[in-house]
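Researcher: Re-running this chain for the archive, since the previous output was lost when a drive failed. Same request as before.
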Amino acid sequence: MKKENKPRKKMKASTLAAILLPISAVTLAAAIAVPILSNTYEGTLDTVFGSGKLTTIGGDSSKANYYNKEKNADATAKSVEHTKAIAEQGITLLKNDNCLPLSKDETISPLGYNYYHTDSVGGSANWNNSEVKTKSFAESLADTFHINSEIDNITKSIRTEEMKEKPGTEPMKVKAVNNWYRYLWTPVSGAYEGKESSFNNTIGVMVVARRSGEGADLKMDAFSDGTRHTLSLTNGELDCLRVSKTNAKKTILVINSVNAFEITDDIAALCDAII
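Model: Regenerated structure tokens:
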């Protein structure tokens, strides 16, 4: 028995739209997002894949002499000196109770999370292939002073916790530029418990850093542990200072922040020097 050929039904406009609209939306979003992300991470992409080379095809050769980017050693050296001058003028000595300058014979006991995580960007972390070599805070001190290896090993892998907002206050996780979120890590209290005697006859140096960037203001109200705001010391950081003040010969607090930091009388009493 011969089958009857039935005419094909035409696709409804609504069905076609339901198929094409999501595809078109995704394609349009990709067409917009890819150039934006490529420009944002141009340095990283150039480092990984190479920057490529422009080739002139046809045209007047006299108009093909483009600017050739070259490194100028003299300009680089002057930039380094200028940067050093800015750093020297920007460092402020807030307290010095017969502590600084230190003798090169002193032994440093590194303290806190930010000693090895200074929350700084640029320098050796940039993507411009700069030939200028930089040193971290920890490397600089290690080149000049003796380092208390027992305390240093604890500090390198110090136990931390992420600060949480107090219920009813501004949330900590706020989205910033490029889908970054603001955050604040702090050493847990008791990080050096049982190692107090290792601080004897050494200089305790603790670094406190606060990152601030585009798109998200610093949280300036309470955290769940009782910390008043971002620009004050956390309980874990205070605990580090107390351990050093009780057991070390001297205690130095280094504040790495572009914002004014709250230093109370109680905090100042725990430090022999504050920078």
